[in-house]
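Students often ask why we bother predicting the structure of a whole assembly rather than each chain alone. The short answer is interfaces. A chain on its own may look different once its partners are present, and contacts between molecules only exist in the joint model. In this exercise we take two input lines together and write out one structure for the complete complex. Read the inputs first and try to guess which parts will touch.
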Amino acid sequence: MIPAAFDYVRATSVEDAIRLLEQHGDDAKLLAGGHSLIPMMKLRLAAPAVLIDIAGIPQLDGIRVSGNRVTIGALTKHAALAASDDLRKNAGALYDAANDLGDPQVRNRGTIGGASAHGDPSADYPAVLQALEATFTLTGKSGRRELRAADFFRGMFDTALDPHEVLTQIAFDAAPNSAYVKFHHPASHYAVVGVAAALTLSGGKIGSARVAITGIGDSAFRASGVEAALQGVTASDEAAVRAACAGAARGVTARSDTFASASYRTAMADVFAARAVTRAASSR
Amino acid sequence: MQIDLTVNGKRASLDVEPRLLLAHALRDYLNLTGTHIGCDTSSCGACTVLLDGVSVKSCTVFAVQASGHAVTTIEGIGNADSLHPMQEAFWSAHGLQCGYCTTGMIVSAVDLLQRNPDPSDDEIRAGLEGNLCRCTGYENIVKAVRAAGAAMRSGEARHSVNELMPIHPPREEPPPSGEGIIPQQLQETKA
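Now the answer. The structure tokens for the assembled complex follow.
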């Protein structure tokens, strides 16, 4: 499959990338690892006139833990996240997602920023980053702005990223009791259902819970009913956790495809929510 | 546009369209046809090469992205005069049938052992998750990777194809007469 023709330029810095975006207008797209964009271009679902390759910008790559805050550069590859001991201890949900995403070759190339900016409704990070209540930093001509994950992911292949902005970093508070569990599609490895859970625990009981689900509807969502029902539940009481996770996708219009029907997806949301909560409560 | 990359240790300068995929650049411009294209949708791994030492699917990388970087294809992993231990292990453990997935499988397995020189069977299966094989059922591929790991850890010397598969020497004795190999029963019938 041959994509439509395009011009290719390399940006050397974030400022350079913003300048190139301004110069080339709305027909330009940023290229990071390319593992969301290139398949779409090969299918001619995307045909940008110009690709601005930002993969070589050094400041955007890396994981930094400072006190309780974890900051991840947008160009950090899945493989780096999957191998990070800092992340395993401080954000198990993101560590789990990076390890279960795609396959080794995809993880060696794809980036957290690229995957997030793509806004795929079956991607893993939208659930994880909503459960972690991450902050997205978007940099444009007039400076930087920060958005909450819930405001960044807007719908199917739709994010709040302006065409002239660069997603530069993603940050969140450490969540040592967090986990991500998914039922992945056997061919694409995308989530049929994926659930991220971040808990606070006190004496074995769940204080607060943040639970986000991907793969079901047009966009990942917080399961607020489940979050409320989990409060005060003994984390090791599997029956109680299961009961609290019942109806996890209530009110969400589930998608249907040849692999999984809407009702199956909805049923699996409950199952995987309970598994994510149990895993989040276990020490890592 | 002009790109400069290092392929199997040699510099290559190519004039390509930006939309040219790395897999096509390797096959059609550099005649390195050991890199196969299977699904062309980043799933099957037949096109796997090493880019700056790590495994990538060359059907999902533009050649222009590889400019300034180093690519290793199966031709750079080993050759008939000096097989890589992984190639030898795939041969000796019957890790292939039709061979289509094999080159990508070997490149991925080489990358896996770089990161984890002594993987468990589960780790081998997880490490090769990005490579699909429709013949073997994977059992012998896992055995091959295990055998290659052992050979590489013990630093065994490389072999050539001729050493491993010598041409049978011509027989000095004439072939046996037909009667000698016809079962007794049939010989009686014939008589």
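Check your guess against this: Chain A has three domains: 7-53, 58-173, 178-281.
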